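Form P-L/3: holo structure prediction, ligand adenosine-5'-diphosphate.
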Amino acid sequence: MIETKGLTKRFGGLTAVDNLTLKVNAGEVFGFLGPNGAGKTTTVRMLCCLISKTSGEARIGDYDTGRSEDALKIRKLIGLVPDNVGLYDDLSAYDNLDFYGKLYGCTEAQRKENIQRFLTMLGLWEKRDAMAGTFSKGMKQKLAIARALIHEPELLFMDEPTANLDPESAKTVRDFILELKKEKRTIFLNTHNLDEAQRICDRIGILSTKLIATGTPQELEKALSSRGGTRRTVVLLQEQATDAILAGLRLLTAVGSVTAEGNKLDVTLSDPEKENAAVIEAIVKAGGHIQSVMIAGASLEDVYLKLVREGGS
Ligand SMILES: Nc1ncnc2c1ncn2[C@@H]1O[C@H](COP(=O)(O)OP(=O)(O)O)[C@@H](O)[C@H]1O
Ligand SMILES: [Mg+2]
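OUTPUT (holo model):
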């Protein structure tokens, strides 16, 4: 659906996006994760044909963002929820959407149906006649999302759609993204929010001017452990940890180190998903009673911070 090769944008002496090579598949929620100034907005603007690239290639479906005759076709295929929503404050919510629908050449029937459908899905239908200028930040954000969908684009770009929203509104927006995924739309989601990326994205690309990693949330976690990050299993016992339990665990080859504190055991492992079964068995064999087992360490947050600090090196 999206394919870039060596996509680069320079503003004078500043390189905002450096040699980005990326593929996003149809039907996928792709999280483009990076700190402020990483180049996320610049990338999206290039992909939406709003600014020109300095070098490289970017294709949307069968079209080339660099060809002026393709730009219009790309615009029909995509929707954009920009980082600053920019609505007409003195038009009602309904009329804001109707106006955009007309710009996109949607028929009256299509506009009517989609305005009702998306405003209802986003919980704004009751507010359709209120001026957009009277809306809260969260409501404006939702209206901007409906606006981006009015012509039913296959591919939706969302530039930090939950930034500055209260938790309740952020959740509505995230749930809505998952609804859109069910409709088989492709979503390219800019975010600096790790937890958000991890919760709703099928794949994540980490950007810091350069693309420094891509993969599913699970793959990114794995990538860190292979780069020397440690993963741990924390076991709570129903009783104090005994020497027999510690000795039993230390016999396991997979176990790096074991520390005990009261009824809590902290076990270092390279692949806890695989090795926890052996850990549990060893504890039970040594007479321990397990209350709970939890995998900790090397979360996506660790990967993210580590990779961004290293700048991809
Ligand atoms: N129009 C512009 N002119 C000059 N520099 C820009 C312009 N737009 C963005 N930049 C710079 O490019 C870098 C990337 O910005 P941006 O793409 O907005 O990052 P992000 O969206 O990840 O926060 C920043 O250093 C920013 O200051
Ligand atoms: Mg941005």
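COMMENT: The radius of gyration is 24 Å.
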